[in-house]
Amino acid sequence: MCGRYANFLTDQELIDAFEIAMLADDARLMPPSWNVAPTQKVILVTASKDDTSSTNAGKRIGETANWGLVPSWAKDPSVGARMINARGETVAEKPSFRSAFAKRRCLIPASGYYEWHTAGGVKTPYWIHTADDAPLAFAGLYDFWREKDSAEDSPWLVTCTIVTTSARDQMRELHDRQPVMLTDDQRDAWLDPESDKDTLFDVIAAPAPKLAWYSIGNAVGNVRNNSAELLKALS
Predict the structure, then answer these.
(1) Is residue 19 among the annotated active site residues?
(2) Which residues contact 116 (CB under 8 A, 6 or more apart)?
(3) Within its chain, how far is the Cα of 148 from the centroid?
(4) pLDDT per residue as tens digits for the range 126-137
(5) CATH homologous superfamily for the domain 5-219
(6) What is the 3-state secondary structure (H, E, C) of the chain?
(7) How confident is the model at residue 149 (pLDDT cuts 50, 70, 90)?
(8) Confidence grade of residue 50 (pLDDT, cut at 50, 70, 90)
(9) What is the pLDDT of residue 53?
(10) Is 191:46 a contact under the CB 8 Å cutoff?
(11) Pick the catalytic residue: 2, 63, 106, 160?
(12) Contacts of 181 by beta carbon, 8 Å cutoff, 6+ apart
């Protein structure tokens, strides 16, 4: 699973790494975070839905959403706290995710993420990142929600979730699940509205970027702790 991650990319790093054509104002105002937690506002990257005749058609847009997907049909937005991850194996069938999987896929940028491993009765957090420290692109889904019978001009709540898959290779030593992390080639296919189900499942099953990890202190377990000190390796 993925229940905590970090995104301390600058605006320019975000734009360059994800080929973003337009970064929304609220995304520009997002501060760096070394401890992103569920229900918080996060940055995501979508492909513009503009008409094909528009100069913006298909271009990547940097926006924000709350982490924890709330389906459009949900009665209460509190369900989002339980939907921070979507299992890749069932994402096309689960009622909570199938519509977003078919129509509203996104990338969720990250500098790395955290996972907890238990050994000998001791639970230890690990910082997981790409071997070359390049940004990670989690495969994500997003949706829109607002209260039933609300006024037409009422704002929409935008929410998202991170797609996960079975842990690969040495990652199995830490946990049985990992987020779906997309290479550059896979990102286009994930965002492409014309990608069929087989293509999307191929993306989910594709190898992740080469990863590295090391153990860190327990301070990351408290969301109020948020600084680069969280990444300090245990001696």
Answers:
(1) no
(2) 123, 124, 125, 126, 175
(3) 27
(4) 999 999 999 999
(5) SOS response associated peptidase-like (3.90.1680.10)
(6) CCCCEEECCCHHHHHHHHCEEEECHHHHCCCCEEEECCCCEEEEEEECCCCCCCCCCCCEEEEEEEECCCCCCCCCHHHHHHCCEEECCCCCCCCCCHHHHHHCEEEEEECEEEEEEEECCEEEEEEEEECCCCCEEEEEEEEEECCCCCCCCCCCEEEEEEEEEECCHHHHHCCCEEECECCHHHHHHHHCCCCCHHHHHHHHHCCCCCEEEEEECHHHHCCCCCCHHHHCECC
(7) confident
(8) low
(9) 46
(10) yes
(11) 2
(12) 136, 137, 138, 139, 208, 209, 211
Range from 36-40, 96-100, 172-176, 211-215 carrying the lowest mean pLDDT: 172-176
For 113, how many CA atoms within 13 A lie in the half-sphere containing its CB? 26
For residue 187, what are its two tokens?
């990102």
Which pLDDT value is given to residue 48?
86
For residue range 16-31, what is the model confidence (pLDDT) as tens digits? 999 999 999 999 999 9
Set 63, 106, 115, 160: catalytic member: 115
The rounded distance, in Å, linking the Cα atoms of 139 and 162 is 6
**The pTM is what?**
0.95
Position 104, amino acid: R
Asked if pLDDT for residue 55 goes beyond 80, the answer is no
Q: Are 221 and 1 in contact, with CB atoms under 8 Å apart?
A: no
Tell me if residue 115 is catalytic.
yes
